[in-house]
Amino acid sequence: MNFSPIKRRSVLQGMAALGSTGLLGTALAQTGKAAWPTKPIRLVVPFNAGGATDIIARTVGEALSKRIGQPVVVDNKGGAAGILGTDAVAKAPADGHTLLLTLSTSMLINQFLYTKLPYNPQKDLALITQVAAAPVTLVVHPSVPANNMKELLAYVKAQKGKLSYGSWGTGSYAHLAGAYMSKTTDSDMVHVAYKGEAPMIQELIGGQLQLCFSSALNTKPFIDSGRVKAIGVTGKQRMDILPKVPTIFEQGVQDDAYSIFGWVAMGAPAGIPKEIVDQLSAHLREVAKDPKVVERIAAAGFLPMMNSPQEFQQNYQRDMPIWKALVEAAGARLD
Length: 335
What we know:
D-Maltodextrin-Binding Protein, domain 2
């Protein structure tokens, strides 16, 4: 698990002790730094309640609240692939009392998908931390005669025009990765978009689809029961909840399209004072050590990260051209 190293340990330990009693903002104000927080924190999740992102938001929010001495209120503002809630944060006061917890979709990918986006993620949002990596599984119907990624690619290529793959929506990773596979194998697979992962998995189990990318939270029960077959997982690190399923990368298929992974991240309105970002980051590094937080993130099929704003920015810049190329390869453009 890749937690950012703690620097200036003695200073941060002192800050943590103050934060646990709700006095951190007061102490910093007395030293000339921004007084924060002075009221409850609004943590906007641009998706409906009950999903994996919402679960992580509530887990992190609860742990953060204990440290800062103020409530962290999760505000679900779902709709339009995360655009509505993300835009609300982008336009909120940059005082550290409105934060965003979302997926890479709304913070990075949507800028390449949508011709008209009401916010510019690179200008209107401050990057705070990548809370967790969000790799997904690649699963197939049991009738597909492939047990690893190379066998699957060969099978797909040999069945030109005969196969279908699913996604939880146009422009999702499942769509982009499936389109990339179809294009690179010249297999002309048919893309079928669903409103969510649950109906997609049911169609896969029923044989209407032959393959799809989907979160481990949704596929694990069916992998365990044998109703779907796992080919691999994206990214470069195996999932804790599926330790026997190898990554696609370690199977020797090392295309960026399969090595990259989405993430759950925290952002804020651009212009948030650096002093507040530093305080928030210090608290989040301590939150990342909480066994309950680590356990819940892993149980959702994610890999804990909780890195620094600088590391988040570096990863963002590294991943951006890969996501842009995937969108272009899929020909996915939305109004």
